[in-house]
Write a structure and sequence with these properties.
Helices cover about 40% and strands about 15% of the residues. It has helices spanning about 20-30, 60-65, 75-90, 100-110, 125-135, 160-170, 195-205, 220-230, 240-245, 275-285, 295-310, 315-330, 350-355, 365-375, 385, 415-430; strands at about 45, 95, 115-120, 135-140, 180, 210-215, 250-255, 265-270, 345-350, 375-380, 380, 390, 395-400, 405-410, 440-445, 455. It binds pyridoxal-5'-phosphate (PLP).
Amino acid sequence: MAQYTFEPFKIKSVEAIPLTTREEREQWIADAGYNIFRLPSRAVTIDFLTDSGTSAMSDHQWAGMLEGDEAYAGSHNYFHLQQVVRDLFGFEQFVPTHQGRGAEQVLFNVLVKPGNIVPNNTHFDTTRANIEAIGGVALDLVIPEGLDPTNRHPFKGNMHLANLEQTIERVGVENIPLAMMTITNNAVGGQPVSLANIRATKELLARYKIPFFIDACRYAENCYFIQQREDGYRHKSIPEIAREIFSYADGFTMSAKKDGLVNIGGLLAARDPGLFEKIQNRLILTEGFISYGGLARRDLEAMARGLLEATDEKYLAYRIGQVRYLAERLLEMGIPIVEPPGGHAVFLDAKRFLPHIPQSQFPALALTIALYLEGGIRAVEIGSVMFAKQDPATGETRYAALELVRLAIPRRVYTQSHLDYVAEVIGEVYRQREAIRGVKIVWEAPLLRHFTAKFEMV
Ligand SMILES: Cc1ncc(COP(=O)(O)O)c(C=O)c1O
């Protein structure tokens, strides 16, 4: 039987969960054009759409919000955040940003030129989009194990070092203004990167004098995986592991909406003084002054406190344990998922769950709709609705490599009985899987269609 790790907190304030009937859900989802992004949250019982900005803050963070010093410049909350960034990550120069993509926008606008290549283990979609918006090329170089849903490699998020070196040799150092490493690697399932791989990536890039930046939004979850899985780190604390990771970086971007345990906020840090000056200038132009970066100062205080809370080992054991618990309950029922589960989500493998639905009828979306109808669970399709592309030469559709449904678990929000409910609903959907029908698109936008498209059941 799957073991559940006790929640290391008790509940002080509660928010009612909408409980709906099947008839109501049928109406809601039809009105939403069968697109879960169009559902109002009051129609959703368990919201697993994202782990980003959906965490519950602690009483200590809320108390910090009341201590917001809303000075335009030099607020004491900024100095507190500065102290935390220095202690935890070893960076003297940083700016706050309104969220992760704010940091990306600032960094890439000062570093990337049209035609430049930016390698990463795997770019998150906003990272890719911000590079492409400038005319750059975002290159994914994850190890092949990362793309195999049944491979149980402990660090499936790792960079493919040989491919990175080949890329540098092929395109030339002068065309690579920076390389990145996303920890954990969200796009392949929140899979961790080992410290050995981070160190080796740094050594390789240093030989070519290419700046190394970390996309650090799930840094604490990645540190915990290193502590649990990598030789030599079992007795190191999470802050010690974080210090070592960031000691290899020339800078980092961070969406604090994940392991910063806040509902809004981000960070951008860089060691090079010339680069940092350009970052500050661009920040003032687009985000805000350097001591607030588009945030209220109370948000800086919540972020400073949240960044530290996320390094608490008892919290991380519960957090990673909660994701593992749901994964194990599903595996006990024979339900196909991406293994091993990553740090922030469980991914259902819709190709194996619904083998009777062809990719042209979007099996992962069909499964997402079935989860909502059965139990009011909002998950998200990560498959061909999101990633299929038309071949410009032949007009043929190239479907996504994987058809996944992501159940992203917000931090400190749901309890064991919520996860048991989710497992039971998915078990019921699995028993009735042969009756699930595919989906067709009836309307789509030209870009990022998954957010707004409308569908019909086939
Ligand atoms: C790995 C990664 N990088 C960057 C971002 C962008 O952050 P934000 O949503 O705060 O703009 C995200 C958000 O999900 C992410 O997962």
